[in-house]
Amino acid sequence: MVDFIVFxxxxxxxxxxxxxxxxxxxxxxxxxxxxxxxxxxxxAYGMRQRGSxxxxxxxxxxxxxxx
Length: 67
What we know:
Largest sheet: none
Strand content: under 5%
Number of strands: 0
Number of helices: 2
Structural class: mainly alpha
Order of helices and strands: HH
Radius of gyration: 15 Å
Mean pLDDT: 80
Distance between the termini: 23 Å
């Protein structure tokens, strides 16, 4: 459950920054780039979880999955 909350905060926060970039007079590139980074981190965080789309038994935390 915590993993899902972290994913949603990163993912929705990135989309919020995408929209905010339109309203920031200076630093639009910085805010938009931060949004891209947050969305990328959210997707990477989701892919590293055991049993996710990669179907790996060994994730970045070196935890062994059930075989």
